[in-house]
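#lab-general

N.A. 3:47 PM
ok so I finally got the sequence cleaned up, no stray characters, all 385 residues accounted for. can someone with queue access submit it? mine expired

B.Y. 3:52 PM
send it over

N.A. 3:53 PM
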Amino acid sequence: MNEIRDLLIGIDIGKEYTQICYYDRKAEEARSLSMKVGTSQYEAPGCICYRTEQNDYCVGLEAQYFSREKGGIMLGNIYDICQKEESIQVAGEDKEPAELLAHFLKGMLKFLGIQDIVKNTKCMCITSPELDAIQVRNYQKACGIAGFLLPMLYTGGLGFDVTYALALSFLAFLVSGIIGSFNYYKAGNLDVKMSLKLGIGSLIGAIAGVFLQSMIEKSTAKTILYLVVLFSGASILVRMWNEKRKAASAASNESPDSSEPVRSKSIADHMGFLIFLGITTGAICSLSGAGGPVLVMPLLVACGVSARIAVGVALFDSVFIAIPACIGYLSRITWTEVLGLLVLIVLTHGIGVWLGSRFAGKVPVQGLKIFVAVFSVCIAIYMLM
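B.Y. 4:20 PM
back already:
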């Protein structure tokens, strides 16, 4: 291969055979990869096999060999698997079609012989004879495209590849974190000590997440992320319901729009817990491509932190998560192609966050809590579907 960085890869998944190619910039043409060293066999059978002894998957000719000679479990043709919504039994476990497709794509990408293929790929295009809604969803899940709001907008709405989408998204998270946390600090709604403890853990977790990318499926990280968000949102609603029941029997002269009373000590005040929470959330967000606030904010509220303080801390914490991601993703894109959009993102996102954080104090605390909880539950359910 003449290319080792910023790869442009094409994978054609046919009804029976699959082929992979890359764009050779020097020759200015696409080059197909041979499925056998020293031969001109460019098509591989589109099958995937589970190897029980190795507890992994193989594809193409290797899949046929292991299923025939080594007792591997042939799972069938990947084109047919992509058309399914229901789970598939593999060695007694249910596997989603998208998960098997992800293993198949990894197997095909190995033919490129490039280490850390994800980081060195600029764009990957997948073609198929036919595409329906089910196949598109499976392809999106398998490729890790279905990220949070901004990555979905940039990939689905604006047509950017994943690397560009994540670079733009984390830049937006960085801008919102800096401006938003500054305004929350000025308004007295930022617990600096809590933020720094959490941020130290998040920075460690975010860096660790970059190194764990090749070991953990991105789809698995995303599932964990949104399950935690779902649990956090539900916990906030349950907590509010319990507080309402307790308050119903006691007279209260406090207006629902007033600031929250000083809270008692909670688990969120312990340094060890905050660092652990930061490491965990930082790693999950770094792996999944999501912004920190979507995970940190509902978790803090669920732990008893004031809703306004939780927003401020989550925004400040997102800076620690976004810095390693920005350095990594922005170094892999061509700035001149999106320079105008980068400037636009900084300006518009900065203005929006500045206005939102400036007027946050005027939002009723209970209303903010309900919004955080309902939004967390809804977005988690949507992303898990």
